[in-house]
Write the structure tokens for this entry.
Amino acid sequence: MMIQDIGPHRLYNQFDPAATPEDGDTVLLLSGGTVAAKLSEKTLAFPKVRDFAAEARARLIYLFRVDEERFFLCTGEDALPEGFAMTDLRTVRQAEPEPKYLVFAALTGKHLADWYRDTRFCGRCGTPTVPSEKERARICPACGNTAYPRIMPAVIAGVIDGDRILLTRYNRPGAYNALIAGFTEIGETLEETVAREVMEEAGLKVKNIRYYKSQPWGVANDILTGFFCDLDGSDEIVLDANELKSAVWTKREDIVLQPDRTSLTNEMMERFKSGEPC
């Protein structure tokens, strides 16, 4: 189950300019890659509006709702309510706590928090922006430039050669098995991104590029698109050591999955490992 699979719950991300915080609403206090939370064994809780001082309540920003539960954004660790701790979002995700929809809410909130942080000033003329009263946007009162939430397209590529798949590890501490991945460049199709990234990172040619599934991924503010493809020609790997620590052809039975099973990458590896059509 991927992180956005929160059924029977449902995300309603429409902008609501009339939303004002009430005591029972949930608050995502986000700072960098951390969130104010109570994480205990397998349970997760976020603070409510009533847990915050008046000054912090005054700067809350409406985000979205899950079912009828409304979520507001708060920034600045100075507002941390008693009994909560700033917790790394990776830790929250890997703990796979209940209820699962709160983890998805936190990562989606992080995506929006980054956008609010990065659009405080106009990217065209540098003037401080103001919130739109009609839609989720930041408007420059000087030049009229309007900034909307940014979503960056990226691909994940499962490269297959018979009963083998190419597993990679990023060149950073604590990296787990993964697949080739990268962001789409301007003027490029998603399929062209797959072919380019596989060539750049592993020196391999691919064919039969086919779409599998997509996933919103607030960790990096992107929308992930998963593709499977087949090796075309030589299986000799030419590793991009700046990007990857390793790239290895791995048989189905030897695949070691990620400890966090909420990602599209892990689902694609698991699908191949189990012998399902790819």
Remarks:
- The mean pLDDT is 95.
- The two ends are 17 Å apart (CA to CA).
- The CA atoms of residues 2 and 262 lie 4 Å apart.
